[in-house]
Specification:
Blueprint: E1 7-18, E2 21-32, E3 36-40, H1 47-55, E4 62-67, E5 70-71, H2 75-78, E6 81-84, H3 96-106, H4 114-124, H5 140-151, E7 158-162, H6 170-185, E8 189-193, H7 197-203, E9 206-211, E10 214-219, H8 221-224, E11 227-234, E12 237-245, H9 249-258, E13 263-270, H10 273-281, H11 284-287
Parallel strand pairs: 3-8, 3-9, 6-7, 7-8
Antiparallel strand pairs: 1-2, 1-4, 4-5, 9-10, 11-12, 11-13
Helix pairs in contact: 3-4
């Protein structure tokens, strides 16, 4: 895992409203080169609006956002960004190679050998044998991986991905995780918008949880799922200590031993991202 450097993507105080609907309420976020940041939140939280604003498809009402020092949405910034929308469509008659060729021509990043890059990108996402396959003949999973390949055209410094694994089976999600891990190792900054908490736990260096247009929690997975509480089994049975932090566990064990207890096991309580998610935003889908 790469050590994050100075942020290549930086946003501060971002606001955005659609008539009477407030999508973003002063969002701060940053992603460094060689870092994967998972963006989590319920439907309607503002995740897709934030992603679109960062790649220039939407204009914010307030705040600032930059990509490698250039204003988000400007030509220099667009030249640094690869983007995969949640809902995208490629022409059904186009082959995989033709889709990538079109995006090579449309992109703001020069490619020395377009044919070689197309072959490499298709291999990267597990579509080496699909160069001549038309989009209309592809499964949803194949189309999703092709979408990821087009986001990688020209080796962008920043990847903005909106639900990139939504149509994939477990094997396909594994492929995408490997692709993103390699991109991170090359120094790419990745902002990953997803509903799949397990994917974030496996891949993300940091997590940003957004709800109702605000950042409500952020940090590394370890920080957000830190140990809080412990169950200790002694010769007098199992006892819960719900308010003990990780750093206090050794002291607790020493105290029990001094009191003459035999300590057989110590089981720290570690929450999951799902626990944190439900604690902070609840189950919004069942509340609608």
């Amino acid at each position: 895992m790469s050590t994050p450097t100075e942020p290549i993507l930086a946003a501060r105080g971002l606001t955005k409203s659609y008539r009477t609907t407030v999508a973003l309420r002063g969002v701060d976020i940053h992603v460094s080169a060689g870092e994967v940041v998972g963006l989590l939140g319920p439907n309607g939280a503002g995740k897709s609006t934030l992603t679109k604003l960062l790649c220039g498809l939407v204009r914010g009402d307030g705040g600032t956002a930059t990509i490698a020092g250039a204003a988000a949405g400007s030509t220099p910034a667009r030249g640094k960004v690869g983007y995969l929308a949640e809902l995208f469509r490629f022409p059904g008659w186009a082959t995989a190679a033709e889709v990538l060729a079109t995006h090579q021509r449309l992109g703001h990043r020069p490619v020395t050998d377009p044919a070689a890059e197309r072959a490499a990108l298709l291999a990267e996402v597990g579509l080496s044998n699909a160069a001549a396959t038309r989009v209309e003949a592809m499964s949803k999973g194949m189309q999703q991986r092709l979408g990821l390949a087009q986001a990688l055209v020209g080796a962008p410094e920043v990847l903005l991905l909106d639900e990139p694994t939504s149509a994939l089976d477990p094997a396909g999600r594994h492929t995408v995780r490997e692709v993103l891990a390699r991109a991170r190792d090359r120094g790419t900054a990745v902002l990953l918008n997803t509903h799949l908490l397990g994917e974030v736990e496996l891949l993300a260096d940091r997590v940003v949880l957004i709800d109702a247009g605000r950042v409500v929690a952020q940090g590394t997975v370890a920080e957000l799922t830190a140990v809080h509480g412990v169950t200790v089994e002694t010769d007098q049975g199992r006892v819960e200590h719900p308010d003990i932090s990780r750093d206090e566990i050794p002291g607790l064990v020493k105290r029990l031993v001094r009191e003459g207890r035999s300590v057989y096991s110590v089981e720290p309580h570690r929450s999951t991202l799902e626990d944190l998610y439900l604690e902070l935003v609840g189950d919004r889908e069942t509340q609608r």
